[in-house]
From TrEMBL:
Keyword terms, alphabetized: Dioxygenase, Oxidoreductase
Protein name: Catechol 2,3-dioxygenase
Source species of the chain: Bradyrhizobium canariense
Record lineage: Bacteria, Pseudomonadati, Pseudomonadota, Alphaproteobacteria, Hyphomicrobiales
UniProt xrefs under PANTHER family: BLR7706 PROTEIN, GLYOXALASE FAMILY PROTEIN (AFU_ORTHOLOGUE AFUA_5G14830)
Domain VOC, first and last residues per copy: 1-122
Length: 125
């Protein structure tokens, strides 16, 4: 249903290495580089970061959020650790989240510009 998403960033020189490190555990890498935007994905750009000069950090209640599918709980853990090592803050540590309709394992981080990124998997055990 969704082909790709775009995230605004205030500084590409900071954002590109951040996302390269954070996305690597999920098998997502930089595929396209343009002067004011960079596309990340597995086979085609599914997540774009776009330079917005003069952008202020997003407000904590902005609601901006994307979720990326991981293959395993280990990938979710590695995503969270890599993002924190690259400068993210943790919004929610990796954990199992049982809900009435579905049981999933996820972690949430906030990038240096305030974008919320989640990694999720649906364990069978």
């Amino acid at each position: 249903m969704i082909d790709h998403v775009s995230l605004a960033v205030s500084n590409l020189e900071r954002a590109v290495p951040f996302y390269e490190r954070a996305f690597a555990p999920l098998g997502i890498s930089r595929l396209v580089t343009r002067p004011a935007m960079v596309g990340f994905g597995k086979t085609y750009p599914e997540v774009w970061i776009n330079l917005r000069t003069g952008m202020q950090r997003l407000a904590p209640d902005s609601g901006a959020h994307i979720c990326l599918r991981a293959k395993s709980t280990a990938e979710v853990d590695a995503f969270h650790a890599a993002a924190l090592a690259a400068g993210a803050t943790s919004e929610s540590a990796p954990s199992l989240r049982p809900h009435d309709r579905v049981r999933y394992y996820a972690a949430f981080i906030i990038d240096p510009d305030g974008n919320r990124i989640e990694a999720v998997t649906f364990p069978n055990d």
